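Input/output pair, single chain:
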Amino acid sequence: MKYVILIGDGMADEPLDELGGKTILQKAKTPNMDYIAANGRTGLAQTVPEGMHPGSDVANMSIIGYDPKKYYSGRAPLEAASMGINLNSDDVAFRCNLITINDGIIVDYSAGHISSEEAKVLIQNINAELGKNGISFYPGISYRHLLVTKNKLGSETECTPPHDIIGENMDKYLPKGKDSKTLCELISSSMQILEKHPINIKRILAGKRPANSIWLWGQGGAPEFPLFKDLYGKTGAIISAVDLVKGIGLYAGFDVIDVPGATGYLDTNYRGKAEYALEALKDHDFVVVHVEAPDEAGHMGDLKAKMQAVEDFDEMVVGTILQGAKNLAEDITILLMPDHPTPVHLRTHTSTPIPFAIYSTTVQKPDKAVAFNEVDVKAGSFGTVYAADLVKIMLYSYS
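Output:
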């Protein structure tokens, strides 16, 4: 038996008046996801433990079989692993977003989804000016970058994700508590460096949002993960354009497979991800495919874009996997799910339980659900489960 986990990040949503009181998953054309639900078993999964922030870090860690209550140490350390940054025992990694601030108001957590090429120059300039005394900045992808500090600086500081505070005054959400003065000074200094940078002037002239500040959040030290193979006796691979998800895979001992054209945005190479996953199944027991696009559209508050991202995920990822499964030498079990809701009217994550479905080419145990969405799966036979148990359910019920 081979196993695939298909994650449509942020795909779940809430009923919308624009859709006649239905959710995006209910309204979108998703014949492949509906096939998995109608021919498999369904339920709701709690991906975010009570009391924890509903981030993609916590949620995806749960889905891949690592209980965040036990293993979670912060978001940024996972991204650091993907970027090849080794953290010492007293290092603290922070996510460092490039954002847009207008008149003190946070208007964009991504600086207009700035290109990686532009962002690299900006972060390198910031590091040249501010990277000293145990502080280092590292360029990543698009708006997502890292700050690493020494001597546990900032490990206990209270920070807020920028996508949670769109439209809010920045002063209200600046870092608070221990070491906050240093972090606030870094943010303030970055604004002076970025304000008149040629790249930002060019972006403004082109009608684009400038990356006129950094924003620090999601900090933590290096986690300690047991290998997936030691926990579950299976080899694994992971496919994602997002450093956070790649980092989880690396700590789990998975092979990280890069797919050309995988952007972590709406223009990602959906079909390529599925095709590479099918190839990876030839020499791996478990393959995880993560698609970020629905989450990005949710944070943008763009209903049309999210609907399209969900339908593209269904057609080009889920559909390709289902079709390819027919040609595999081994049987296959598929777990399909979002990691958390990213409702378009909220533009941020919630911790509401999300729909999931498990389908096997040989173990046929269909229940009463006929479609994949937040409502239909309530008729499923699994009920509500803790997401960190799903890998065990796959292995012990579908082998």
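Residues 44 and 244 are 24 Å apart (CA to CA). The first strand starts at residue 2 and ends at 8.
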